[in-house]
Write a structure and sequence with these properties.
Rhophilin-2; PDZ_sf; BRO1_sf; alpha+beta; disordered N terminus; about 5% strand; 4-stranded antiparallel β-sheet; two-stranded antiparallel ribbon; Serine Threonine Protein Phosphatase 5, Tetratricopeptide repeat; elongated
């Protein structure tokens, strides 16, 4: 039997429970359930794939029918688990502070990818002993530290320290991949990561895939940090915009450097969607911040508000087209799809409402025979999108009835867009349960209808509303600052990079004791970290002991010199007595 799906009130009850304590309690609860579902989906997916292979391979009708039945059963259980996962992804308020859930519509954050535990002990110890010719027991603490550092990346705190944890692992991985995880070594490690949206697993040996998953989590973390900010304050809105810009930067960084993803969440199409979603929300939050600071009600200010509001709607417009694509409908949570449509319609309505207010002000100015200022005319010139006759008339109009007609035309468009926003909102049970969102949509629609009713008795020309031009978007994606987190090379004792790396190889170390002759040791050193033998004199003690040109010097009289500069290495050799013991390797 497939596991029972939680009731429709399960996540709503979770929200109520979490409001007693810290918001992180709910996030932890949902993240834990997400991890459980990922494991269940992986198990059923393996069973499904195995049954399908049996169907193709079997020639026995009974066995094939039984395998087909089992494959269908496994597929149905996967769908049940994915439906619950979609419900978790639709818990938008889980990422808000408890005091904001009743007063502020949520943003759409996206989840961090989770990973399965990975034991690197066997692979690393084999590489250290076989490739580096060293005793791995001396590095067991570092191996376990790296292993725990990796596992922690799918359950980091939702703040800057969480971002630092991800950057720390990424930077450590950069170093470790050069030493211990490299295709040349045949390391045998398999990185398992689960799709952040549908939970399906992907298994790769590529370090590039591992890095991409970490950067994806950096973007996801910034989306969640933005979602928890109080956007009713200028400072909170500014922090939210900054987090969203960092999320956009992480996704754009991925798009430029990672391709052919084995999971849909990191495909080019989905990365573009998520980047555009964060961009739209950043523009929206910036608009919210400007509304907090806008105190004047002059026509020029209202025209500017219409201009900027349309830019928010335009950001959501391509997203609306994308979520209506059939391939997206089967993948993205229904809540996200509806919310994108709600936002596009809502901000389109507000843009028309502000344009109507501006023309209503101008109608009053014409009625009172006031002169419409040049500043207002310039604002109108930039408000409308096309150089059409209607737009030109709207810009140059000084007739009261013409401005009344334009105001009514914009109000009609606003009313229609409000109706669409409310309709899309009603399609999603998850959105319908978000009280501040429903209240915001209803209040905006009521305000527009009231203004339309107020102007119903005024005579105005019958006019089509010109298209409103969106303002320029000036968001600046912020790429991950990897250099902001410095890490110490866990496996520094293996030797300095790039010499002691997975790409290079060398002989087993040999220890040679050389007696100084009348002419000295008979060898010359060059270079640093490590120094190497640049010349061996014919017939010298060094040649007699088997020293070769090109040998790397690891130690002198038991002192490790791999990290020593050339001068320091020479000084150590010079300070030795008549006998000098070298530990050497020959690059191969």
């Amino acid at each position: 039997m497939a596991s029972a799906r939680p009731s429709s009130t399960y996540y709503a009850e979770s929200l109520e429970e979490s409001s007693i304590g810290d918001v992180s309690t709910l996030r932890t609860k949902l993240q834990s359930r997400r991890a459980q579902l990922n494991v269940e989906i992986e198990k059923e997916d393996k069973f499904h794939q195995g049954s399908k292979r049996l169907v193709r391979a079997s020639s026995d009708h009974k066995a094939r029918d039984q395998a087909q039945l089992e494959a269908s059963f496994a597929e149905s259980k996967i769908r049940v688990h994915q439906a619950e996962l979609a419900k978790i992804n639709s818990s938008l308020q889980a990422y808000q502070q408890e005091g904001l859930r009743s007063s502020q519509p949520p943003l759409i954050p996206f989840a961090l990818k989770t990973t399965a535990r990975l034991s690197v002990v066997s692979s690393f110890t084999d590489t250290i002993s076989g490739h580096y010719h060293m005793d791995p027991a001396a590095l067991l603490d570092q191996i376990y530290e790296f292993q725990e550092l990796r596992y922690a990346v799918s359950n980091v705190t939702r703040d800057e320290s969480g971002v630092e944890s991800l950057l720390e692992y990424h930077n450590q991985l950069q170093l470790v991949s050069k030493r211990l995880i490299h295709p040349k070594l045949r390391h045998g490690l398999a990185f398992i990561w689960y799709d952040a949206i549908n939970g399906l697993p992907a298994v790769q040996q590529s370090v590039t895939f591992e890095k991409a998953c970490i950067i994806f989590n950096i973007a996801a973390l910034h989306s969640q940090m933005a979602a928890q900010e109080d956007r009713s304050t200028v400072a909170g809105a500014s922090r939210a915009v900054a987090s969203l810009e960092k999320g956009i930067g992480a996704l754009e960084y991925m798009k430029d450097r990672f391709s052919n993803s084995p999971t849909l969440d990191m495909s080019d199409e989905l990365l573009s969607f998520l980047s555009d979603l964060l961009r739209a929300q950043a523009q929206e939050v910036r608009w919210e911040r400007e509304q907090l600071e806008m105190k004047r009600t002059e026509p020029s200010t209202i025209i500017d508000a219409a201009h900027k509001t349309k830019s928010v709607a335009e950001c959501y417009s391509p997203l609306k087209e994308l979520v209506e694509d059939n391939s997206m409908k089967g993948y993205l949570p229904e809540c996200w799809i509806s919310y994108v449509k709600v936002k596009e319609a809502h901000y389109k309505a507000l843009a028309h409402y502000y344009a109507a207010l501006a023309h209503d002000h101008l109608a009053s100015a014409c009625k009172g025979e006031e002169v419409v200022g040049e500043e207002v005319r310039m604002e109108l010139k930039f408000l409308y999108a096309v150089d059409s006759e209607e737009a030109q008339d709207a810009i140059t109009a000084s007739n009261q009835q013409y401005h009344v007609g334009l105001a009514k035309a914009h109000l009609n468009c606003a009313v229609l867009a409000h109706e669409y926003a409310l309709k899309y909102n009603s399609y999603s049970r998850d959105l319908s349960d978000i009280k501040p969102l429903c209240q915001m949509l209803q209040d905006a629609a009521a305000r527009t209808r009231a203004k339309k009713e107020e102007m119903s008795e005024e005579e105005g020309a019958s006019i089509m509303a010109p298209a409103i031009k969106p303002s320029e978007i000036t968001l600046k994606p912020v790429f991950p600052e990897f250099s902001s987190v410095e890490v110490e090379d866990l496996f520094r004792s293996l030797g300095p990079l790039p010499a002691f790396s997975a790409e290079n190889s060398w002989s087993t170390p040999r220890v040679l004791t050389i007696h100084r002759g009348k002419g000295g040791l008979g060898l010359s050193l060059r270079g640093s970290r490590p120094s190497s033998v640049s010349a061996v004199e014919d017939g010298s003690p060094a040649e007699d002991m088997g020293v070769c040109v090109g040998d790397w010097v690891l130690a002198v009289d038991g002192r490790d010199v791999r990290y020593k500069s050339h001068n320091d290495a020479i000084a150590i050799v010079t300070d030795c007595g008549d006998e000098v013991t070298f530990e050497l390797v020959t690059p191969t």
